[in-house]
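User: Hi! I have a protein structure encoded as tokens and I'd like to know what sequence might fold into it. I'm fairly new to this, so please keep things simple.
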């Protein structure tokens, strides 16, 4: 990983995954290059769910797998958990207290995940999310709240999230000079897309991303899913 020269850090659902034909074209394109593109997958899914998707879609095993909206990190072919990252996040994490508050917010429905390293819910209305946010703040619970796709509410340990997890990996493996493209399609991708690295919002992105302010490092692809990644790769890195 330390010697990677080219990196694709991409969300899975709705970004790398969603159109099999363009996914195949992108992977064939990468295989045809003289350089190797190291893959970092950054997904909202929990670990088992991410593995199922990788199997179902026949995705290459990534060099780094970041799960649970940036709260889980797995490294190398054997996907070894990064314990330094989990220990850092545990320090100020209060899942029971978060769940207790969530239970009394009308309209907030638990996702019933098999993990407690993040707390995730469904909410169909921004007012519900704002009520939750204000109760968490009132109780002084350290957290990061992310609302995506008009449906998913993720409460994460502070210091985590897709952007901070990606930056942690870039720092840890001294990858800041590699040619990097960051790709996403929804609200939980905003932080990684706005780190300042070449980034792409794919053509099928959710409304919350489409209204993201213009920035020279963010390319808005016309193509959807992996086709958008391919379009942006050529835009940034054809030399
Ligand atoms: C994925 C996860 C879900 C999460 C959402 C948004 O869909 O499965 O738990 O809330 O991403 O981050
Ligand atoms: Mg997505």
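Assistant: Happy to help. Inverse folding works backwards from shape to sequence: for each of the 239 positions I chose a residue that suits the local structure. Here it is:
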């Amino acid at each position: 990983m330390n010697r990677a020269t080219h990196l694709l850090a991409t969300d899975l659902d709705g970004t790398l995954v969603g159109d099999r034909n363009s996914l195949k074209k992108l992977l064939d394109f990468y295989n045809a290059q003289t350089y190797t593109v190291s893959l970092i997958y950054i997904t909202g899914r929990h670990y088992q769910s991410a593995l199922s998707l990788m199997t179902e879609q026949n995705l290459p095993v990534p060099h780094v797998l970041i799960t649970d909206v940036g709260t889980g990190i797995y490294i190398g072919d054997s996907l070894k958990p990064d314990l330094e990252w989990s220990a850092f996040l545990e320090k100020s994490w209060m899942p029971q207290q978060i769940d207790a508050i969530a239970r009394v917010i009308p309209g907030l429905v638990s996702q019933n995940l098999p993990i407690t390293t993040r707390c995730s819910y469904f909410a169909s209305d921004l007012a519900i999310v704002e009520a939750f946010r204000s109760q968490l703040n009132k109780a002084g619970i350290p957290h990061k709240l992310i609302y995506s796709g008009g449906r998913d509410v993720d409460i994460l340990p502070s210091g985590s999230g897709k952007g901070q997890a990606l930056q942690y990996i870039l720092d840890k493996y001294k990858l800041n000079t590699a040619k990097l493209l960051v790709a996403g399609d929804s609200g939980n991708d905003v932080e990684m897309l706005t780190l300042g690295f070449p980034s792409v919002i794919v053509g099928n992105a959710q409304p919350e991303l489409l209204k993201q302010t213009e920035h020279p490092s963010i390319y808005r692809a016309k193509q959807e899913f992996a086709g958008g990644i391919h379009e942006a790769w050529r835009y940034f890195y054809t030399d």
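A useful reference point when you look it over: The domain at 6-88+160-236 is CATH 3.40.50.1000 (Rossmann fold). Feel free to ask if any position seems puzzling.
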